[in-house]
Amino acid sequence: MKKALIVYGGWDGHDPKGVADLFSEMLKEEGFEVRMSDSLDSFLEELTSYDLIVPVWTMGKLSSQAEKNVCDAVAAGTGIAGCHGGMCDAFRENTEWQFMTGSQWVAHPGNNNVTYTVHIIDSEKSSITDGIKDFEVTSEQYYIHVDPAVNVLANTKFFANDEPYGANGEVTVPVVYTKQWGKGRVFYNSLGHTSEIFKNIPEAKELMRRGFLFAAR
Questions:
Q1: What's the confidence (pLDDT) of residue 34?
Q2: What SS3 state is found at 204?
Q3: Which among 14, 49, 105, 196 is least buried, having the fewest CB atoms inside 10 angstroms?
Q4: CA nearest 147: which of 98, 80, 81?
Q5: CATH code of the domain in which 18 resides
């Protein structure tokens, strides 16, 4: 049986407990043995026995040793998968974490009331997106700074408007991607402001389910 560690906490506005509970349920349905933890001290333990790490922790501070433990475990083959701020706005001072996970949130123009389209890229080429069509979501539209090594599976367009960034015209930003970190696989989905996104948008939930299976050892 595969083993997963879900570590949740940080900023309450992202519903860490609700998202963690939903992810735990999803993983158990796929046959995982799941451990839930609300302490970053869990990252100080031996982690290579886990097949998958799922961080659900927005902002906060991570010790250098905990950061090293997670990055080393992924490099050795433990997968890591997460969403929204819970993985890629997790520890703003930890650049090795950002290097490993592949991006860092910097803005969400329009806050939580933006309706936008998630565009699936070449769905037939990936088991994660196979059969999933473009879909709309009303939530935060994440503008992330991205590692050029990531394999983008879905993206979204930011349109020019009266804000300062609009002077650049239309830009395309990844929503879903994968990458490698040593022997480990990384999966990220920028959707997931709260658990309701996954409960109400089946495509978003299915992308996470498939992403977990992809990333797990």
A1: 99
A2: helix
A3: 49
A4: 98
A5: 3.40.50.880
Owning domain of residue 168: 3-215
Please state the separation of Cα 148 from the chain's center in Å. Answer: 17
CB atoms within 10 A of CB 214: 18
Cα–Cα distances in Å, from 151 out to 82, 130, 148, 176?
15, 15, 8, 9
pLDDT digits (tens, 9 = 90+) for 150-178: 999 999 999 867 778 888 899 999 999 99
**Torsion angles phi and psi, residue 152, rounded to 5:** -80, 125
Between CA 70 and CA 48 the distance in angstroms is 9
pTM: 0.97
What's the CA angle centered on 192, arms 16 and 163, to 5 degrees? 115
Residue from 36, 73, 32 nearest 55 by CA = 36
| pLDDT tens-digit series, residues 114-131 | 999 999 998 778 999 999
Three-state secondary structure string covering 92-136 = CCCHHHHHHHCEEEEECCCCCCEEEEEEECCHHHCCCCCCCCCEE
Query: Cα angle at 48 between 189 and 93, to 5 degrees?
Result: 55
Domain count, the chain: 1
Segment 134-158 shows an average pLDDT of 97
Please report where in the chains the tokens 């402001």 appear, as a residue: 193
